Amino acid sequence: MSGLTGPIVDPEPERLGMPAKRKGSSRGIRSRASGRGWVWRIFLFLVVLGLLPVVLTILYLPSFVHPVSTLMLKDLATFQGYDRQWVSIDDMSPVLVHSVIMSEDGQFCSHRGIDWAELNLVIDDAMAGEATRGASTITMQTVKNLYLWHRPLGTLRKLVELPLAVYADMVMPKKRIMEIYLNIAEWGPGIYGAEAAARHHFGRSAKELSRRQAALLAVALPNPIARNPGKPGPGLRRLASIIERRASRSGAYVGCVN
């Protein structure tokens, strides 16, 4: 009888056709679940990152909102600081606004965020192996300054920049896009916006700029670190003369900002 009272031991699982419980299997399941969790978190982060410019563009519509650029944020993060004094576009010299349009994006008032004709020319030049010129519109430069990086991965940035420019043009009036651009554009190390640039380079407000001074500021924009509008060389003065003449005959080209 003593054998009946002893502990009952199950046969080995393998003999009953049941798989043996493997050590570490639960750990593997947890590891896979954790991996899927990280993938999901990264996906959500990318979705939020992609939606951020969409939401911010709407928030930037009111004139009392004064956006900052990614370069300005970088200067703050690196403790360099910056000089920017926001002013309404109506408090800037009209000749400055006209000069920047005629220098940077002559079709600003007619395109829908992207100058497709100019972009196609650049693509054709690139396919032919020729040197390419910039095809960025003021709208594209505005969304780049507001939301995107400047270096490296310029081609990838362009792919993101294009749909954002189309969206910004759909949502924002042209005059508001121009106002934001003129208040976040870089005009020298730590110098952002037309007001700070006018005071730094010419010792006067953006509203008091002469035609020549406005033209010099406009032609400095493609390379504000190397081009000093306050101390222009012969090449910069020659470009300013061209833009000065174009601005004086801009007419309908600048009608959307008047």
Outline the fold blueprint.
Elements: H1 25-59, H2 70-77, E1 83-84, H3 94-104, H4 116-127, H5 138-147, H6 154-171, H7 174-184, E2 191-192, H8 194-202, H9 211-220, H10 234-248
Parallel strand pairs: 1-2
Can you tell me about this structure?
The protein is mostly helical. The protein folds into two domains: 25-59; 60-257, Orthogonal Bundle (Penicillin binding protein transpeptidase fold). Helices cover 54% and strands 2% of the residues. It has ten helices and two strands; from the N terminus they run H-H-E-H-H-H-H-H-E-H-H-H. A two-stranded parallel sheet has the order 1-2. Helix 1 (25-59) crosses helix 6, helix 3 runs parallel beside helix 9 and helix 3 (94-104) packs across helix 10. The radius of gyration is 29 Å and the shape is elongated. Residues 12-16 have low confidence and may be disordered.
